[in-house]
Amino acid sequence: MQILLRRACHAASLARERGVPLKPRLIALLERRYDAIVRVGLVHHESLTPLAGVRSAKGAKRRRRKSRRTGHNLLLGFQTRKEDALRFLHDPAVPFSNNEAERDVRMMKLRRKISGGFRSSESAADCATVRSLLATARKPGWNIIEALTDNPQNLAQALGLA
């Protein structure tokens, strides 16, 4: 699956660079291969001996869903979320991973973890605004210092918001 997704990412990146959509035949081929990998993986995991069930402190068996291995859960996720996992093949605006979005949120989470949060909602909003401005300026390659010191109206015009 890892090799398939890397190849699909590469194909989508090349198509995006060229400004053309992926060919429907290629998308269909990748989706068929994706389904085959999931199917083989599920057959493998279902053939393994089941994991031991969880027991309570008194030794009685709890009534819960069956325990599954991590790989089995991952395959089930691939199966149920196929459309989401392969969305980057159909829509060039969707990135292969969400690393950029996670990076944008990480600093706020770190700030909350270190200092325990903000003293007021206004300071949290101000921090979020500055972080959003920095992330927005970084994407098109703007100079961060200029973006912070420039008139906000100029930035809004440059982004097409005004």
Account of the 3D structure:
With 162 residues, the protein is mainly alpha-helical. The protein has two domains: 2-56 and 67-90; 99-158, no CATH class. The chain is 67% helix and 0% strand. The protein is built from nine helices and no strands. The radius of gyration is 23 Å and the shape is flat. The two termini are 45 Å apart.
Features:
2 domains; mainly alpha; 162 residues; flat; 9 helices; single chain
User: Uncertain runs with pLDDT below 50, 5 residues or more?
Assistant: none
**SS element count, helices:** 9
**Amino- and carboxy-terminal Cα gap:** 45 Å
Number of domains: 2
Q: Helix and strand succession? A: HHHHHHHHH
Main sheet properties: none
Rg over CA atoms:
23 Å
Secondary structure blueprint with pairings:
Layout: H1 2-18, H2 24-47, H3 70-80, H4 82-85, H5 87-90, H6 99-115, H7 121-138, H8 144-149, H9 152-158
Task: Please outline what is shown here.
This protein has about 160 residues and is mostly helical.
